[in-house]
């Protein structure tokens, strides 16, 4: 049985830069997180931004699980076309059509070699609907700061990116008010989906509990210390929600 007197270890990662995202807020959040939280929670934030590249990622994930043996793994990435935070339910084995920052993809032959016998789609064993209900309650008083300092009048051209590829440039208000935190099942088919699938496999096969106690959170395109600080607050509340729900599953 796992309770408040037992330390729960949560491994956390964030990605580095890629096309259209010179400063990835997922890594900006990860490197600003505390090492411990109330209720005996230990945060193990990987010490570097994970490169947005398939082959380094597939090498790194098993090493992180073997070294740290976390109870829960939380990976983070940016969804710059969204104005909300979301945890993703599933990921898929393939395809991986988008070239990474090294100009590489992950071929069907490599997929078969690494993940022989694994299903096309995998889902976390965490109860994300329960997690999100707790997360929404915990974050209802968080106010997202204005990107322009609060006057709401500044406009600029901002390039949105999705699934690792730049899309059209839109003229948008330089004000991002995060509406909420959500459940989602749209992780994409780039490195966010890739690392999520890789760790869903790894935690099941070589993790401490033999369960897929893994989550992936997409964050909006946060910029500057004030917005990243809010991202940290939202992430802390997600971790607390994940751990509370996970502990209830263990009892």
UniProtKB/TrEMBL annotation:
One of its GO terms (biological process) is proteolysis. GO terms for cellular component: cytosol. It comes from the Eukaryota. The keyword DNA repair does not apply. Keywords: Cytoplasm, Hydrolase, Protease, Thiol protease. GO terms for molecular function: pyroglutamyl-peptidase activity. InterPro entries: Peptidase_C15, Peptidase_C15-like, Peptidase_C15-like_sf. Pfam families: Peptidase_C15 (PF01470). Signal peptide: none annotated. Belongs to the peptidase C15 family. PANTHER family: PROTEASE FAMILY C15 PYROGLUTAMYL-PEPTIDASE I-RELATED, PYROGLUTAMYL-PEPTIDASE I. This is Peptidase C15, pyroglutamyl peptidase I-like protein. It comes from Zopfia rhizophila CBS 207.26.
């Amino acid at each position: 049985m796992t309770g408040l007197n037992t330390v729960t270890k949560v491994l956390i990662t964030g990605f580095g830069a890629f096309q259209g995202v010179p400063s990835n807020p997922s890594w900006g959040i990860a490197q600003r997180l505390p090492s411990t939280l109330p209720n005996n929670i230990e945060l193990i934030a990987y010490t570097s931004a994970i490169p947005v590249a398939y082959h380094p990622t597939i090498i790194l994930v098993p090493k992180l699980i073997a070294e740290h043996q976390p109870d829960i793994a939380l990976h983070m990435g940016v969804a710059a076309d969204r104005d909300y935070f979301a945890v993703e339910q599933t990921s898929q084995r393939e395809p991986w059509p988008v070239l990474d920052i090294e100009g590489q993809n992950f071929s069907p032959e490599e997929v078969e070699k690494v993940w022989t016998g694994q299903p096309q789609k995998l889902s976390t064993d965490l109860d994300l609907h329960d997690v999100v209900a707790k997360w929404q309650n915990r974050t209802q008083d968080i106010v997202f700061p204005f990107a322009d300092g609060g006057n709401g009048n500044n406009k600029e051209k901002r390039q949105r990116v999705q699934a690792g590829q730049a899309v059209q440039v839109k003229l948008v208000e330089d004000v991002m008010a995060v509406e909420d935190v959500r459940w989602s099942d749209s992780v994409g088919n780039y490195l966010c989906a890739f690392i999520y699938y890789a760790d869903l496999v790894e935690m099941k096969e070589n993790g401490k509990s033999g369960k897929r106690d893994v989550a992936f959170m997409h964050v909006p395109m946060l910029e500057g210390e004030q917005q990243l600080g809010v991202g940290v607050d939202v992430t802390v509340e997600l971790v607390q929600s994940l751990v509370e729900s996970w502990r209830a599953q263990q009892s």
